[in-house]
Amino acid sequence: MAKASTKSRTSTKSRTNTKSGTGSGPSRSGGANSADGSGSTKNAGGKAGSNGGSTRGRQSRQQALVRELLKRHGTTYAQDAGITLRDTPMPLYQLLVLSMLLSARIRADIAVASARALTDAGMKSPRRMADATWQQRVDALGVGGYRRYDERTSTMLGDGAELVLERWGGDLRRLRGSDDPEGALREVPGIGPMGVSIFLREAQAVWPEYQPYLDSKALQGARKLGLPESAGKLADMVKKEELAPLAAGLVRAALSSKVAEEVRQAAGA
Known about the structure:
The chain is mainly alpha-helical. Helices cover 60% and strands 0% of the residues. It has helices at residues 39-73, 77-80, 89-102, 108-120, 126-131, 134-143, 150-168, 173-176, 181-186, 193-203, 216-225, 231-235, 243-255, 257-267. The longest helix is centred in the N-terminal third of the chain and has 35 residues, at 39-73. The protein is globular.
């Protein structure tokens, strides 16, 4: 899966169209339209001022939207699941599990509750997940409400834990240093392209080389809110530590028109 591009950080400069019926040269903008040759120039200046004000107004509205989104829906999914994300083995593994659960065709709140239930049942690390029985994993998933895919997911959780132990010694930081971290993530059972996106959207908080990671789902939320559909431009609107919360908020806006409308109303947009 292609990583969200950061090449769009440089904003495109606006260009004033100088074309007229007499040609494009700036010295031809007056003359026939006014006795002193200044009428067209004044008009162009007025349009430029109007365009500048319009641009500033749009930027102000967009900034208000971003602030309201962060305030109301800027909690990361890892935080919702009770994961204190750090660049250490256990929370990174817990994020991997959460990413797998969230990528299934099931409500996000159920996936988050099920990740919490697995942690509460002691399955906090790949070793503990692998050592748990298939039924213990099924039971924990059931506590979180993850019943539709619980049996298949229990198997994938066990197989995935074994792979993480065998391939990276239980430490996903070793995956981070590989030639193709995204490809390596897809080798984990239950982690497809969507799971990779979810993992890296959240992991960018502790893996800054992935910033800004704003995938197609996050940019879909930006479009619903009337924000720039560019990872670079969105990143320029927040602090680095706000990128993961911003991504989570944008995904919520993409998934819920109610969230998008609430943010727009709060921002007066």
